[in-house]
Amino acid sequence: MVSESFKVSFEEGLHMRPAGRLAAEMSRFESRITIVYGDTRTDAKSILSIMAAGIKYGSEIIIECDGADEQAALAAAAELLRG
After folding, report:
1. Residue 76's pLDDT band (boundaries 50, 70, 90)?
2. pTM
3. For the chain, what percentages of helix, strand and coil (3-state, to nearest 5) are there?
4. Which end of the chain is least crowded, N or C, by CB within 10 Å?
5. Residue 50: helix, strand or coil by DSSP?
6. Per-domain residue ranges for the chain?
């Protein structure tokens, strides 16, 4: 398992558009990908789960990837979140 911390830089947080892009990109990977936000663990492949987490601008989140392509999944998440 690999993980990395990120600060949400989208002005509206992880609302519909960035949540959709993140979920679509993460769905390409075989690994289990989780967003940790406070005490909440969210499936990064589910747009509805991401939006339901209510992740706001400036929030600290952790992306955890576990599986065969975990490094590539984390790199793709980093590119989107730092983009």
Report:
1. very high
2. 0.95
3. 35, 30, 35
4. C
5. helix
6. 2-82
Q: Show Cβ contacts of residue 7 under 8 Å, excluding neighbours closer than 6 positions.
A: 58, 59, 60, 61
Q: Please give the structure tokens belonging to residue 55.
A: 């992740």
pLDDT per residue over 10-64, tens digit each?
999 999 999 999 999 999 999 999 999 999 999 999 999 999 999 999 999 999 9
Number of other CB atoms surrounding residue 24 within 10 Å: 12
Name the CATH superfamily housing domain 2-82.
HPr-like (3.30.1340.10)
Q: Which residues contact 4 (CB under 8 A, 6 or more apart)?
A: 62, 63, 74, 77, 78
* Cα 66 from chain centroid (whole Å): 13
Q: Which two tokens stand for residue 7?
A: 């600060």
Give the tokens for residue 15.
């609302």
32 is catalytic: no
